[in-house]
Amino acid sequence: MNTSHAAAARFESVTQTFGDFAAVDGIDLSIAEGKLTTLLGPSGCGKTTSLRMLAGYARPTSGKIYIQGKDATTAPPEKRGLGMVFQSYALFPHMTVGDNVGYGLKLRKTSRAELQTRVQESLEMVGLSHLAGQKPRKLSGGQQQRVALARAIAIRPRLLLLDEPLSNLDARLRVQMRAEIRRIQNETGLTVVLVTHDQDEALEMSDDMVLMRQGKIMQQGSPEAVFGAPASRFVANFLGYENFLALDSTRQITVRPEHLITTPTSPQDPAAVNPDAAAGPGLHLRGTVVDVAYRGVDVIVTSRALDPTGQQVQLLSNMRADALSHLTPGDEVLLSAPGDRLVALAAEPEAASSAAGAAR
């Protein structure tokens, strides 16, 4: 097979099975050189299994994995030239920060002078050169995460693999480390593959997002492309689209809460009887408010309405508090969205085995 060198890594029809269960089910995946790619999805979707196969800690049941154009399907982890940061960081508690960062270099029999230079450079990159002599137990969670990152970078890997590295940090540190990882990736030009279940993390950090479900790839593309045009209800729902309406027996649309406009009206208003008279192309429905949640700068309004097929649906509208008159449950409203804010959804693919919930 002639594999493009534009891809840092490539999966070709890769499957990983455990008995009758397919944790990863025949995926084709290309990971672009010098970009940050996220494998995103809920627990059980196959993202961690895919990362472990790329790292060499698990072998595909079938299919091929190429790294920089070379078949690496059966190569052991130490022969792949990859750096990996685990969820637990896996630092050696009896070693100093500097020794932890230099551990992979020592295994590669790097000269003492080169080892010291790379350790210093890597620690400077993550802002921890002043802690080289400390033991990991004296560091905060965020600092330990940076040490693990520096250790992975120090060996100058072909690819840097990150397995939910931020999940053990508090919310503030997670946001800081997202920016830190992205900065390092931009400065070094490293190819990074990040596993996460957090859609905000993926949207903020990715050059390329790979959204998985039950061992299959549901959609791949830039954050803007995937978020702006989700391919299916699963993708839309996972990315925070909450309003789904059927147009007929085969067609479905979705609209995000911030794009659904809620306008107070009354039964005497002609538009309340004939919503299409409200204005131009797009979505126009008559609804009834069932809940109003004030959140300071914005308000979440939940309304019930009938979709174009006559089925009752519950719709959420997220609007600025200063742009909305006072509403209470029971009020009649018009629910509208311009046509360019409506996203047409493809039919859902056949569901995989319910056993998929057991895999990661």
Automatic annotation (TrEMBL):
Residues 9-239 form the ABC transporter domain. Transmembrane segments: none annotated. Its EC number is 7.6.2.9. Keywords: ATP-binding, Nucleotide-binding, Transport. GO terms for cellular component: ATP-binding cassette (ABC) transporter complex. The keyword Nucleotide-binding applies. SUPFAM superfamilies: MOP-like, P-loop containing nucleoside triphosphate hydrolases. SMART domains: AAA (SM00382). One of its GO terms (molecular function) is ATP binding. It is an enzyme of class 7 (translocase). InterPro entries: AAA+_ATPase, ABC_SmlMolc_Importer, ABC_transporter-like_ATP-bd, ABC_transporter-like_CS, Mo/tungstate-bd_C_term_dom, P-loop_NTPase, Transp-assoc_OB_typ2. It holds the Pfam family TOBE_2. This is ABC-type quaternary amine transporter.
